[in-house]
Design brief:
By secondary structure, the chain is an all-alpha fold. It has 8 helices and no strands. The two termini are 16 Å apart.
């Protein structure tokens, strides 16, 4: 790792009250693009700082959540595409890992005299763990994030399970076929609309995560 990256990582591990002065001091030791890069590093919010400290000081708990998020995302994709997936088990494992990492972040913050919102911690950890791509520099978060919901749906076309066509009744077979076709079309449109909403939420969350990464 380049020396400047190591120094930036160390900067994000400092007590929150020391961040700004340490960042400004570091900026004076470098020139050109490196100096601009350091000067534009955003001071983390209390929530972001607590999450960063969890990454640096409780890596096992942090990574357990990230792996649980990956498994849940894979299960969501499997369920959506009609493959066998234990979505309930993956969801429960993710909820447990999420609760544990939030508790750890609260403990670390409390020891430093900070009290971040548990809800904001939960939302941000959830967004990080369910994002399609992991941040390039974990441990350098500058602001809280909002989860997009079912990020696992990104780029996935749902498989709509339909009941086999019933044997047409002897009376008015054409009307029966027309009604069945209308029903199929409504189910397909409903599934595609749900997917579009999930994709839109995912894009918002990933855009927010990218802005945070750009600032760091």
């Amino acid at each position: 790792m380049p020396d400047l990256d190591r120094q930036i990582d160390e900067l994000f591990q400092l007590p929150l009250a020391e961040f700004t002065s340490a960042r400004n001091a570091l900026a004076k030791t470098v020139r050109g693009a490196d100096a601009t890069r350091v000067r534009t590093l955003g001071k983390p919010t209390v929530v972001a700082w607590a999450i960063n400290q969890t990454y640096w000081r409780a890596r096992h708990t942090f990574e357990r959540l990230m792996k649980a998020g990956e498994r849940l995302r894979a299960a969501q994709i499997g369920a959506l595409t009609g493959k066998a997936a234990d979505l309930r088990e993956a969801g429960e494992a993710h909820r447990k890992a999420l609760a544990d990492v939030v508790k750890e972040a609260e403990r670390i913050a409390s020891e430093a005299g900070s009290h971040p919102s548990p809800d904001a911690l939960t939302r941000t950890f959830e967004a990080l763990s369910l994002a399609k791509d992991r941040p390039e520099h974990p441990g350098r978060l500058a602001d809280a994030l909002q989860p997009a919901g079912f990020e696992a749906l990104a780029g996935v076309r749902p498989t709509v399970r339909l009941k086999p066509d019933a044997t047409p009744a002897k009376k008015e077979p054409d009307r029966r076929a027309i009604e069945e076709e209308k029903k199929r079309q409504r189910e397909i449109k409903k599934a595609e609309a749900a997917l579009a909403r999930a994709k839109a939420k995912m894009r918002l969350a990933e855009a927010a995560l990218k802005r945070t990464q750009d600032r760091s």
